[in-house]
Amino acid sequence: MKSRALAQEAEEPSDADLVARAQGGDPSAFETLVKRHLRAAHAVAFAVLTESADADDAVQDGFLSAMQHLDSCVPAEKFRAWLLTIVRNRAFDLKRRGRVRSVEILEEGTAQAHEPSPLDMAERSELNAQLSAAIVTLTDTQREVLMMHDVEGWKHADIAGLLGLAESTVRVHLLHARRRLRTQLLAVAPNGRRGEAV
Amino acid sequence: MIEHGEEGEPLDFPAPIAELTSLYPARAEAEWSSLVSSIMKGAAPELARRRDERGLVRSILRWARPVGLAAAAVLVVGAIGLAVTNDAEAMVAGPTPTFAEVVDREPASALLASELPPNASDLEAALESDSLQQVQP
């Protein structure tokens, strides 16, 4: 079993090889890179945007930007970290634009744009609605750390590497995020929001 | 003493909120495939541009090698020809004259062979030319 896994590893081309081939315009090499890092990229984008559809947009934009600037990925072995940084920056761009759009909508007197539609409410479970409401109260970094660690199962070291923080700082952010989220959920639960939602 | 659990977190560290995973539900494989397809569709023009660019460079490189070899061969042939020509010219010119010959002074051996008595200036010039010949390597 172990030898089979090792053999498979040996057969699979490294990121550096795939990057070199993609730089020459090889579509299959780029597709392999996309498939290999798609879920990690989506997790990073989702940690920032907390909406799967928005995360899809950020991931797509991030990969396209990476393709266009593939020559600046040096060293090529660091493709994953380089890509995830691009996707994360793209997610923050989208988030900022989303905020601008929200402010414009509110200024036009359509404050109800923030309220979830009945369809949304039907699609989203009550628990998800509570979690989503609570998670918005976290800082960007707290939310990223929490989502990557508790939802995606990333290690502290990996999160620290991506965010450019010390591991101890990541732990502190995780501690505060969990405490804050728990406090928020406890505050919401006794108010009978369950009844309002249904 | 503080006890530590998994990943070095203290045991009193707040536990993960299990329900959080429901925010990020598992996606069907078809959804991931659809996302891959849209990324590949968007990247297609850039990939095509890179292929064309690589093709142009390759065709230039394909011609560069024979052209470079031909140029090198011409240079080598030219250099050999130049060297041969120089040698021939040097052979025609004969051996390099001594300093005394250049300044048109007769050496003492020539004066002795001529059986004519040298005057004082001839003697002086002959001695000077001999001493110069000895100095020359």
What does this structure look like?
- The complex is a heterodimer of chains A (198) and B (137).
- With 198 residues, chain A is mainly α.
- Helix content of chain A is 76%, strand content 0%.
- Chain A is built from eleven helices and no strands.
- In chain A, helix 2 packs across helix 3 (27-49) and helix 3 packs across helix 8.
- With 137 residues, chain B is mainly alpha-helical.
- Chain B is built from four helices and no strands.
- Chain B has helices at residues 29-93, 99-102, 108-113, 120-135.
- Chain B is elongated and about 130 Å long.
- The mean pLDDT of chain B is 75.
Annotation keywords:
heterodimer, A: 198 residues, mainly alpha, Rna Polymerase Sigma Factor, Chain: A, Arc Repressor Mutant, subunit A, 2 domains, B: 137 residues
CATH architecture tag of the largest domain in chain A: Orthogonal Bundle
The dominant shape of chain B is: elongated
Tell me the number of strands of chain B: 0
CATH topology name of the largest domain in chain A: Rna Polymerase Sigma Factor, Chain: A
Major beta-sheet overview of chain B = none
Computed structural class of chain B: mainly alpha
End-to-end distance of chain B: 94 Å
Average pLDDT of chain A = 80
Work out the radius of gyration of chain B. Answer: 47 Å
* Chain pair forming the biggest interface: A-B, 45 and 33 residues
The low-pLDDT segments of chain A are: 100-113, 192-198
Summarize the structure.
The complex is a heterodimer of chains A (198) and B (137). Chain A is an all-alpha fold.
Summarize the helices and strands and which ones pair or pack.
The complex is a heterodimer of chains A (198) and B (137).
Chain A: H1 2-11, H2 15-23, H3 27-49, H4 52-68, H5 79-107, H6 118-123, H7 126-135, H8 140-151, H9 156-163, H10 167-188, H11 193-197
Helix pairs in contact in A: 2-3, 3-4, 3-5, 3-8, 4-5, 7-10, 8-10, 9-10
Chain B: H1 29-93, H2 99-102, H3 108-113, H4 120-135
